[in-house]
Design brief:
Length: 107
């Protein structure tokens, strides 16, 4: 039987369920459709240093109607899901995430 430590990754990945890295939260802001959105980001989650270019491009090109339903699968700290919720004010947005630190940030 393998040693328990052998199965634990040496560093966190954004898909790590329970990140081991030291928490170091900070605030991140970006403009979406003229509204300043504010988020708390942290170590051990995807894009903890800021909005990554791919996510920024996705958010800039969201085409969501006011009553649409959206699923943000693997939401991280919630950038896409919150932007979708702002666009779909009469709709419904569901955010999901395996990383518990990211869950706490997004929800």
């Amino acid at each position: 039987m393998p040693d328990d430590d052998a199965t634990v990754p040496s560093e966190d990945h954004y898909f790590t369920g329970r990140p081991r890295s030291r928490s170091s939260p900070r605030t991140l802001r970006f403009l979406y459709r003229g509204e300043l959105l504010s988020f708390v980001v942290d170590q051990g989650v995807f894009a903890s240093h800021g909005l990554d270019p791919g996510t920024a491009l996705l958010i800039e090109n969201l085409t969501i109607g006011r009553a649409d339903r959206v699923l943000d699968l693997g939401c991280g700290w919630g950038a896409v899901g919150v932007a979708a919720a702002k666009a779909a004010r009469d709709g419904r947005v569901v955010l999901t995430e395996v990383n518990r630190r990211a869950q706490a940030l997004a929800f």
